[in-house]
Amino acid sequence: MSVSETNINRGINLNTKKARSLENKPTDDRKYIPKQFQEVAESMESQFAETMLKQMNQTIDENPGEDTGMDFYKSLQTSERAKMMSKQNNLGLQNIILDQIYPKRLRNEMALKQYEAQADMIHHNLPSYKLHKNRDTIEMGKNESAPVAPDAINKANPSSEGDKP
Known about the structure:
Elements: H1 17-23, H2 35-58, H3 68-87, H4 93-101, H5 109-125, E1 129-132, E2 137-140, H6 150-156
Antiparallel strand pairs: 1-2
């Protein structure tokens, strides 16, 4: 038997209908990427698209600066176009960014659950902040110290007026 005739069986039978149907089927691994990472990739693509659109708008022969209202409207229009382009993933930068910040080897159900568990643990260990509406103060965690009365301050720092005859 020659080397070319040897059929090495690696435990996977590729001749079944199921294996052939999965052969060219793209997998959706984005469902195993945490939302925070997807939002970062989308915002980065949006920033890039906005910069690109601003540069494209500068090539148009117009009289810039004549109307500040029109300039403001055009900048809003540019930023909204960039957001829509990033939501539709037209540029394809999100995939490249996600490959860098969240590699494909981590895109599975178990890794996502581990990430969420760690994020929950970190979230629960952060100090809590409470806003008191009636006092306009912010309290961080628990404050176990007792308030100091104004009389105690006066007794600790006697005024020099009492020493004079």
